[in-house]
Each structure stands twice: as structure tokens, then as C-alpha cells.
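User: Just a sanity check before I run the rest of the batch. Below are the C-alpha cells for the first item. I only need the designed sequence back.
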């Protein structure tokens, strides 16, 4: 059985396994993550789509702590690609 609690830091989901242990997972909404990363919700959704992040729950997109850490570690702009040398003509 899953139990949900809402607080300002995210949604805390408690899941009870068949073995009897209880696990807690914190999920963040798109708006919460956008505010924490100082990005727009649209930018967060685009980043989630391009990197296959988040959990779709109905019309909502929820993010785990691993998703948050991945997005927080990204630098803006294109990655620094190394260019192949141009052969001399």
C-alpha cells in the first residue's frame, strides 16, 4: 500500500514491500523543480523529455531525487564537442 504526504519539499511516498519493510521516496513536481533550479517549468519539461527523466502520473510529471541531481549538475548550452581535424586538401 502507498501513502502520500505533501510538503513544501516534495511529495513523500511511503511504499510497503511484501517483506514488510517500508520505503520512502520523495517526488518533486515540475513547478517545485523549476523554482529550485531557477528555470521555467517549460525548460524543465523539455529537459526531462530530452533525457527521459521523470515519472508521468496522469497529466503531472514528477521527479525523483536522482532526476533533480542530474538536472542540477547540467551546465547551460551545448556540450564541449571535440572537432575532428580537417584533412589537408
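Assistant: Here's the designed sequence for the first item:
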Amino acid at each position: 500500500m502507498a501513502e502520500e504526504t505533501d510538503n513544501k519539499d516534495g511529495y513523500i511516498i511511503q511504499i510497503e514491500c511484501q517483506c514488510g519493510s517500508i520505503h520512502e521516496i520523495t517526488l518533486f513536481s515540475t513547478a517545485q523543480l523549476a523554482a529550485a533550479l531557477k528555470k521555467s517549468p517549460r525548460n524543465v519539461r523539455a529537459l526531462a523529455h530530452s533525457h527521459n527523466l521523470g515519472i508521468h502520473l496522469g497529466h503531472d510529471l514528477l521527479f525523483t531525487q536522482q532526476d533533480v541531481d542530474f538536472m542540477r549538475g547540467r551546465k547551460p548550452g551545448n556540450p564541449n564537442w571535440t572537432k575532428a581535424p580537417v584533412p589537408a586538401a
